[in-house]
Design goal:
The protein is an alpha+beta fold. Helices cover 39% and strands 21% of the residues. The chain is built from seven helices and eight strands, in the order βαααββααβαβαβββ.
Length: 216
C-alpha cells in the first residue's frame, strides 16, 4: 500500500524546496521558454525569481504543500492592496539574470486584469513532473476550496488553457484569454465565487481529501 501524503502549511524551512518544486513544474512549459530563452539557465532563473514570491507569500498569504514535496499551492490574501516584495527591483534584476524585461512584461499584463475587490490570489499550483496525472492537483484544489469556503472570498488565478477543465470541476469560471503577447499556450484567467460551505472538487482521479488533510 502506497503511503498517504498529508497536506500541511509550509514552514520557513520549506521556502527554497517550494521554489524549486514550482520551477520544476514550470520548466517544461512554453511560458518558461519565453521568460528565459537560455535553456542552460532557465531552471535556476525560475527558481530564483519564484523564491522572491514564495518568501512574500510567507508574510502576505499562505503556502500549502504535501509532506513529500510533490505538490504545492501558493496564494496571497488580497483583502486590501499589498506591497511588493522587499527590494523587489534589485532582487528581480539579480534573479532574472538579464531577462528582467520579460518578467516585467508578464507582471504588467497580469496586473491589468487583477481584480480590485478583496479576493484570494492563487499565484501557483504546482505538481512535480514525476507526480503529475495522479490526482494531486485536484486534491490541492479541494483543500484550497475548503479554506476559501470558510473565509468567503472569491479566488482568482491564471492558468494555461489546458488546465481549465480541472478548475471548472472545482467551481472556477473561465474568463477571456489575457496574455496574447506572450507565447504561453493560450494562457487565460479564471475566477470563482466560493460555493456552499463544504463543497469541493469532483474529478475522476480516484483521489480524495480526508478530514485530516491527507490525500488518499
Amino acid at each position: 500500500m502506497e503511503p498517504i501524503a498529508r497536506i500541511r502549511a509550509a514552514r520557513w524551512a520549506d521556502k527554497n524546496p517550494v521554489a524549486a518544486l514550482i520551477a520544476d513544474a514550470l520548466h517544461p512549459t512554453p511560458l518558461a521558454a519565453w521568460l528565459v530563452p537560455d535553456l542552460s539557465r532557465c531552471r535556476q532563473v525560475l527558481t530564483d525569481v519564484v523564491a522572491i514570491w514564495v518568501e512574500h507569500a510567507m508574510f502576505f498569504g499562505d503556502i500549502y504543500l504535501t509532506d513529500d514535496l510533490t505538490a504545492v499551492t501558493v496564494g496571497f490574501h488580497r483583502y486590501r492592496p499589498i506591497p511588493p516584495p522587499a527590494q523587489y527591483r534589485i532582487r528581480l534584476t539579480d534573479a532574472a539574470a538579464g531577462h528582467t524585461g520579460r518578467f516585467d512584461l508578464l507582471d504588467s499584463l497580469l496586473s491589468l486584469k487583477q481584480p480590485t475587490e478583496p479576493h484570494y490570489h492563487l499565484a501557483f499550483l504546482a505538481v512535480h513532473p514525476d507526480a503529475q496525472n495522479a490526482g494531486l492537483a485536484t486534491a490541492m484544489l479541494t483543500h484550497h476550496r475548503s479554506r476559501l469556503d470558510r473565509i468567503d472570498l472569491p479566488s482568482w488565478t491564471v492558468i494555461p488553457s489546458a488546465g481549465q477543465s480541472l478548475l471548472a470541476h472545482c467551481g472556477y469560471t473561465p474568463r477571456p484569454v489575457i496574455i496574447q503577447q506572450v507565447p504561453t499556450g493560450s494562457t487565460s484567467v479564471t475566477a470563482r465565487q466560493p460555493g456552499p460551505r463544504g463543497s469541493g472538487c469532483v474529478h475522476g482521479s480516484g483521489v480524495r481529501l480526508a478530514r485530516d488533510g491527507r490525500v488518499a
